[in-house]
Structure formats: C-alpha cells, structure tokens
Amino acid sequence: MPFELFVGLRYTLTRRHDTFVSTISVISMAGLALSVASLIVVLSVVNGFEREFRERILSATAHVQITAPGGPLEQWQALASSVRLQPRVESVEPYVDAQAMLSSGSVARGVLLHGIEPQADALGGHLAAHLRAGRLDALQPGQWHVILGADLAAALGVGLGERIALVSPQSSAPGRMAPRLHDLEVVGIIALGLYQFDSVVALMNMQDVAALGGEEAVSVGATGQAPVAEASTVSGLRLRLHDPFAAPEVAQDLARQWPGLVVSPWTRTQGNLFQAVRTSKAMLAIILALIVGVAAFNIVATLVMAVVDKEADIAILRTLGASRGAVLRIFMLQGVMIGLIGTLTGLVLGVAVAVNVDVIVPAIERLTGFRFLSAEVYQIGELPSAIHLRDLVMTVAASLGLSFLATLYPSWRASQVAPAQALRDE
C-alpha cells in the first residue's frame, strides 16, 4: 500500500477515542450521502412524472390532429387516404367530439364525449388496455352505450350495466338551443390515471356522437383499410405515428401540404405540461446540487480541523523525510475517501429509496393520514419513479468533483506546516 494512502486511511478511520476528527469525518460522510440520495430520489420522481404523463396522455391523445378552422372537416376521405400514405403515420381515424351533460339521480356532470370507432382501432387499441371493466367493442352504433372515466363514474355513482341520462344541446330554431335527452347504458369503466381524463371524458361510438349533433353516420373500416364514409364531414382526423416524438416534424410537413387546415401535434396541445415538468426538474436539480455542494465543502472544515489536530504528526513525518507533496497527497486522499464513501453510500441509499418509493410513500401516508399527492391537483394520484443512468452518473461525478475541490486548500495548508514551529508548540 502506498505510504500516503496508508496514512490517509489511518487518519480517516482512526479509532482513537480522544479525538473528534473521526466523528466529524463520519458526519461529513453522512451529510454528503443524504444530499446525494436526496438528489437521486427527487430526479427519479420527476423522471417518473414525465414518463407517466407521456404514456398516459399519449394513450388518450392523438399524436397529430387535423381539423378545419372554425367548423367540421369536410371531404375528409381523400385527406385521410393521402395522410395514410405518409411513411411515419401508423393509423388515421376520423372522430366526432361533442360536449354534453350526464345525470344519474340528482347528480349531473358536464362531460366531453369522445366518439371513437373501436373496429378502426386507431386510438381504441391503446384505450382498451386501461379498461377496468367492460369491453371497447361493446360501443356498437345505435345501441347508445357509453364507457365512463373512473372518476366520472364514481361522481355519478354508477357502475357497469346501469343506465344514465344524456342531455345534449340541439338547435331548434335559428339562434335557439333546446336540450335533447338520451338514455345510455354504461358498458365499461376506463382509468388512465389522469384526473383531467378520468373525470370528464366519456367514450361512445362515433356514429352515436355524430347523431347527437344531427350529423349523418360515419362508418370506418378495419385497421389499415380505407374508411368507408357515409358522411361528408367529421370533427377532424386523429393520427398516430410510429414515433410520437416526430409529431412536430410530421405536423409541419402536413401543414405545408394542406395550408388551409389546422394541424396540431401533441407537443402543442399537451407540451406545456411536459415543459413544466422539465423546468421543475432543472430547477430542483440546481437547488439540490447546491445542497450537495454545501455537504461536499463540509469536507473543508473536516480537513482543516484534521490539519490542526495532526500538526505534530505532520511535523514528525516531515522530520522523517516526508516531502511537502507527500503531506499534500495524504490529506487529499483523506478528503477524497470521505467524499467517495459518502457518495457511494448516498448512491446506494438513493437508488434503494427510488426503486421502492411506490411502497414507502403509501406506508407513510397510512401512518400519518396525510396524502402527499392529490389527483385533482397533480393529475396523478401516486408517486412514480424512473431511474436514469445519466442522472446517476452526473450526480456521482458532481459529488466526487466537489469533494476533490474541497480537499485542495486544507491539503495545501497541511503541506505548509513548519516542523520546527509545530514541535516547539507541542
């Protein structure tokens, strides 16, 4: 073992009971470990939020949406056939959306009706994976069946097989609207885990939603086949892409081909949410990195006290032939070992907490009776986590780098100790 490393280890892990240097070293390690663990856990939770938002929102949202400015999309059949030929487009589905009110007993809720065609399976295949009860293919045209979001069904107090009333506005005369009533049967409950979807969205067959507004029926063929149209207008087209993150480029290309249409990628309609998550992640990373820096620079105080405590030892080492460089390396190695042990301990602790955060947080909530996340505020009711290797590497590198910088001044000061003066003071 090199001489400097041997002495540095003895100073770091000393068992002498008459000194507090080893205690301060342990405190420095613990502070650095907690800071590193906190940074890893927070970044993992933010990554989890970003992943959950992306997966859940893209399950219910078109990657690209094509609509006409100020009205329904006319002559959409030719447009759909042309768009389907784009190499990055996976599927195209016409849709009809409407606003209405659902009531059960004395409870009424405003809802957004999503008219889908289950056989087309453009959005249906992704929504089917989130069904808690029922089947998506139960939305047959003319049957007036509905699938409710989980929170919406709970608010209305209804379950599978129960009936609810649908109230939709309909024009009865120029400038006048009259309510129109329909009796619906609940054939499914869906839960994406997003409050903004589960609390306001109801799924119906596209032909039924079109009938609410007096539209003609629309029939769509199986996946990959050209749609068979029985109406000249729909609300718009929903596109799903092979790569959702190519949506802005695809939207730009489509907008150049059809300049009179409104082409909106999901990054425009939902991008503010992801941008907010990423901004929060950046701010939290900066704040927690400063905390790691404070913990790392506690090593400065630790080493300064070690130098003061070990002045006589330093003087003896110098008289035995140790150079200034050797003394410098001894205390640098001591500081680096404190930083290394603290960083690795924090890494293990942070990863362990991040992996089990879905167990730890509910346990704390049960013990304290306090709920950390409200779905009405944060859209997601549970605390997700996703560990990224890049975050771990950057956190460890930053901690070790700051720990190394913290050793420079105390080590230089130790190398400047004058042996004669130190021994005279003893």
Verbal overview:
With 426 residues, this protein is α+β, with helices and mostly antiparallel strands. The chain has two domains: 3-55 and 274-425, no CATH class; 63-266, no CATH class. The protein has 16 helices and twelve strands. It has helices at residues 3-12, 21-60, 76-84, 124-128, 150-156, 195-198, 206-212, 247-257, 266-269, 271-309, 311-319, 324-355, 357-368, 375-378, 389-415, 419-425, and strands spanning 64-67, 73-74, 89-104, 107-116, 131-134, 145-149, 163-173, 176-190, 201-205, 233-234, 236-241, 262-265. The strands form two sheets. A six-stranded mixed β-barrel has the order 3-4-9-6-8-7. Strands 2-10 form a two-stranded antiparallel ribbon. Helix 2 (21-60) runs antiparallel to helix 15 (389-415). The radius of gyration is 32 Å and the shape is elongated. Mean pLDDT is 78; it is low at 215-231.
List the helices and strands and how they pair.
Blueprint: H1 3-12, H2 21-60, E1 64-67, E2 73-74, H3 76-84, E3 89-104, E4 107-116, H4 124-128, E5 131-134, E6 145-149, H5 150-156, E7 163-173, E8 176-190, H6 195-198, E9 201-205, H7 206-212, E10 233-234, E11 236-241, H8 247-257, E12 262-265, H9 266-269, H10 271-309, H11 311-319, H12 324-355, H13 357-368, H14 375-378, H15 389-415, H16 419-425
Parallel strand pairs: 4-9, 6-8
Antiparallel strand pairs: 1-11, 1-12, 2-10, 3-4, 3-7, 3-11, 5-8, 6-9, 7-8
Helix pairs in contact: 1-12, 2-10, 2-12, 2-15, 10-12, 10-15, 11-16, 12-15
Provide keyphrases for this structure:
426 residues; alpha+beta; two-stranded antiparallel sheet; 53% helix; elongated
